[in-house]
Amino acid sequence: MKPRIGRTGLAILAGRLTAVLVGPYLVPVPPLEGTLPPKALADFDSQFIEINGLSVHVKTMGQSQPVFVLLHGFGASLYSWQAVMAPLSQHGTVIAFDRPAFGLTERPLTWEGQNPYGLEAQVALTVGVLDHFGVQQAILVGHSAGGTVSMKTALAHPERVSALVLVDPAVYSGGGGPVWMRPLLNTPQLRRLGPLFARQIRARGPEMIELAWHNPALLQPEMIEVYKKPLQVENWDKALWEFTLASRPSGLAEHLNEFTLPVLVITGDHDRIVPTEDSLRLASVLPNAELVVITDAGHVPHEERPAAFMDAVSNFLSILNP
User: Which of 241, 243, 208 is nearest to 122 (CA)?
Assistant: First the structure.
């Protein structure tokens, strides 16, 4: 005979189901306090440009050719490039912008059409930035997840990208977690709690920044404050959760043979976020890649060892233009 579920078992099952379905609505989600509009946090050299219906925070430096477009990684902003923007501007024009969900770029919570936090929209945004400044072709410099956006842009619009500089690029990892989790993350219950999960970055932020450095002792308090600044922007938590929901695997690993343009891969020798071995593997597979491993550097060599980073880029530019 098949075992029967007794009344007690049914009651327990019903209680657990109720807890799963109703429990999240009982958890308080207090509003963020002390937040400001992005423009209230801008610097004297900040620009806000309208691209694809989005107010995008941009900084520029230098003039003439070539044009470098800088794309930061997850949890960062254009401030990640502050130590190398001026040196890069000695070689040409530098354009850095905040990707959606980060920095001071607008964080929409509703939209029509393409999800602004998705990878395809970020590619379109990158091309939109080029169009706004009248740039026909640029060298894209992408760090970590920004490297993913750079590579996808080069695949989708090869005529607009002359070369890539990939800094600890997230090619073999990332993409929003296991496929089976996505329907769960999109349930009304987790959509409600999502901003609470996103807010954990405030507590874990310093730990994550230290993890990105080979020698965290070199971190200055003002550097930590630069990372905290975007967490003062209104709705940053909801936007970060929308970004998480929109994340998908890039699929780049299956298309690496298509990158015939010149590529410089830069990695720290002690990257604990995107393992150094991943960058070595990437450089060995790309058809036309140069590799530079910066010693005593972690996941952010452009922040931790900016002079060594610039040496690598300068040597690469000399190869492009002998």
Answer: 243
pLDDT of residue 221: 86
- Of the candidates 98, 303, 148, the one whose C-alpha atom is nearest the C-alpha of residue 210 is 303
Phi, psi of 106 (to 5 degrees): -55, 145
C-alpha 93/C-alpha 238 separation (Å) is 34
pTM of the entire predicted model: 0.89
Q: Is 134 left (phi over 0), alpha (psi -120 to 50) or beta?
A: left
Please give the order of strands across the beta sheet that includes 289-294. Answer: 47-51, 54-61, 93-97, 67-71, 138-143, 161-167, 263-268, 289-294
pLDDT reported for residue 26: 46
> How many other C-beta atoms are found inside a 10 Å radius of the C-beta of residue 201?
16
All residue ranges of the chain with pLDDT < 70 are: 1-29, 174-186, 188-189, 191
Return d(Cα 57, Cα 40) in angstroms, integer.
12
The continuous run of DSSP H or E covering 10 comes out as helix 7-26
The DSSP secondary structure of 190-210, one letter per residue, reads HHHHHHHHHTHHHHHHHHHHH
Per the listing, tokens 């640029």 go with 138
- Say if residue 210 is exposed, middle or buried (CB neighbours under 10 Å; 0-12, 13-18, 19+): middle
Other Cβ atoms within 10 Å of 317 Cβ, number: 19
User: What domains can be seen in the chain, in order of their start residue?
Assistant: 38-320 (3.40.50.1820)
